[in-house]
Amino acid sequence: QVQLVESGGGLVQAGGSLRLSCAASGRTFSDYAMGWFRRAPGKEREFAAAISWSGGSTYYADSVKGRFTILRDNAKNTVYQEMNSLKPEDTDVYYCAAGYTILEVTATPGYWGQGTQVTVSS
Predict the structure, then answer these.
(1) Long-range pairs for 59-63 at CB < 8 Å and ≥24 separation?
(2) In CA terms, which of 19, 51, 53, 112 is 20 to 30 Å from 31?
(3) pLDDT of res. 27
(4) What residues pair up with 34 in beta bridges, in sequence order?
(5) What is the distance between the alpha carbons of residues 12 and 21, in angstroms, rounded to a whole number?
């Protein structure tokens, strides 16, 4: 079992930046691939970014590619998502996720955080 706690959400103007953090506890962090998802009200949760256990491989949804960067620090049991050039359509609740493989974490993660709200004003 792994517990995930997100932080770093908030209100930002369009064109601005935010850095989300997700702290993991409970199991060996480097055993897991990690990811970020997001969900707008009334919509399905959608994949945003994923990173392998070593950090050597990353994957992004087309909607965030070139603007978002996923990073991890295994010494701190933390995964980050740096978000730049934010747009009003990036307004969502952002969720951290964990899975045993990067394929799993991009599709059906085994573990979820509680989410953090990001609001981008125009």
Answers:
(1) 59/102, 59/106
(2) 19
(3) 85
(4) 51, 98
(5) 16
Per-residue model confidence (pLDDT) at position 57: 96
| Residue type at position 73 | D
Q: Work out the mean pLDDT of the chain and round it to a whole number.
A: 96
**Would you say 82 and 88 are in contact if contact means Cβ atoms under 8 Å apart?**
no
Residue type, 36: W
Q: Residue 41: its pLDDT value, please?
A: 84
Q: Are 111 and 2 in contact (CB under 8 A)?
A: yes
Averaged pLDDT, 31-50: 94
Query: Which of these, 78, 91, 52, 84, lies nearest to 65 by C-alpha position?
Result: 84
Written as six digits, the tokens of 76 are 């701190």
Q: Do 15 and 90 form a contact (C-beta atoms < 8 A)?
A: no
